[in-house]
């Protein structure tokens, strides 16, 4: 849950003060480079438990090796595939349940408390149970990712549909719209921005849950499994490589999705101005 | 959400139906006991664990780590967020690294931290501290940066010192978002701790569940699920009550 909608760089740099933006940006590089050099120096002097630090040369070797062998790509593809499946399944289930809870008071009252009880348990806390039930294969992993994607979507769909302007719905009723058309063209459209926020959260949660499950199950392929294998083998270069790619992919997913949403919701800006 | 809905009977229907289905399924032997332990055996595991003091010891071990790590992470996070908010220079140097590291979920750092700190107590406390650091740092930063320029101008006109500005203006103005950040940090810290304990620990609620899994004690695993859910809920809910009390009368 460490990355979120308001991705960072936009916050900095925008208030460059007296310094030129370029100089400002260079300052941001000082600390990472200093840390890398310190890291490299510690590795050369064999500080720590021997395998805690690796030299930059070792890291780049590991990187080149993982790319050349295709392992890195295979692991990334495996993880992204899980996230995609989890998002589709969790998305459909989440939007369906959120809609049912928002539109029917009975469903809300019967399923709501159950939903909120289950929500209290951290997603990864289900792993020992699912491991017992379904073993260590692909299915329990997909189940966890689906669950992670589903829950934020239930909440945002519910909130979105509940907060539709009543006036809009009444206009629809006056026009004696078919309930289905009313739902599809009025309610769902009004709830779309909120649901898209939910999708954005679902994307982040699914990625985190996917990495988490792969690490905790420690089996199969995937970028999390790669990190966990690296840890068991005491191979810091592999672990670091995995961590860097987890961050890069998280950033890429969030950025791509934000671009997509901004494009999809352009109609809203003009409507608000009117 | 504003609609009042108080109908405890109907609210219980779903939970009771699930419990009944669970009980019936185990009664009829739809699943073997190792696959689905009956509700009463989960209850027995709870009573047994509570009676022997074992469950209490696990919970205390986890909460102790949570307290130490959270205190450290929240304090450092608040200081960091404050420094970033007050000094553009500090922000210029640190924000790049800050936001880059933020992209990586805490769980992905766990194996790396194991390599650096080993599997002892330090590692778990660092995980908790990392998980709570970010929400608090961000909340303090955005809370203080979000203060309207008008107020800052008034403070400048009165030539308030930095200490006075902090106490009279920034603290009260940033309190609501900071409290939300502190609450978010606490719940993330709990999630991260459970994950860390599932991976490596010799005591703690996550370790209890992992042992239960290895010994095929489904009752213990299920009991653990209920316990981590309850603790998470109590932490979050308790903090919400505190939040409401502290911000009472504030329009923000």
UniProtKB/TrEMBL annotation, chain A:
Give TM segment ranges: 83-103, 204-227, 239-258
Localization, per the record, is: Cell membrane
Q: Which PROSITE patterns match?
A: ABC_TM1
Keyword set, alphabetical order:
Cell membrane, Membrane, Transmembrane, Transmembrane helix, Transport
- InterPro entries tied to this protein: MetI-like (IPR000515), MetI-like_sf (IPR035906)
Q: Which residues does the UniProt record annotate as the domain ABC transmembrane type-1?
A: 76-257
Which GO cellular component terms are attached? plasma membrane
- Recorded topology in the membrane: Multi-pass membrane protein
Gene Ontology biological-process annotations: transmembrane transport
Family, as annotated = Belongs to the binding-protein-dependent transport system permease family.
* Name recorded for this polypeptide: Sulfonate transport system permease protein
Q: What organism is this sequence from?
A: Sphingomonas jatrophae
TrEMBL record, chain B:
- List the subcellular locations: Cell membrane
Signal peptide location in the record?
none
Reading the lineage from the top rank, the first entry is: Bacteria
Parts of the chain that traverse the membrane = 70-88, 100-119, 125-147, 215-235
User: What is the membrane topology noted in the UniProt record heading this document?
Assistant: Multi-pass membrane protein
Tell me the Gene Ontology biological-process terms attached to this UniProt entry: cellular response to sulfur starvation; transmembrane transport
> What keywords sit in the KW lines?
Cell membrane, Membrane, Transmembrane, Transmembrane helix, Transport
Report the principal subcellular site: membrane
Keyword Repressor present in the record's keywords: the answer is no
User: Would I find 4Fe-4S among this entry's keywords?
Assistant: no
* Similarity comment text for this entry: Belongs to the binding-protein-dependent transport system permease family.
From the Swiss-Prot or TrEMBL record, give the protein name. Answer: Sulfonate transport system permease protein
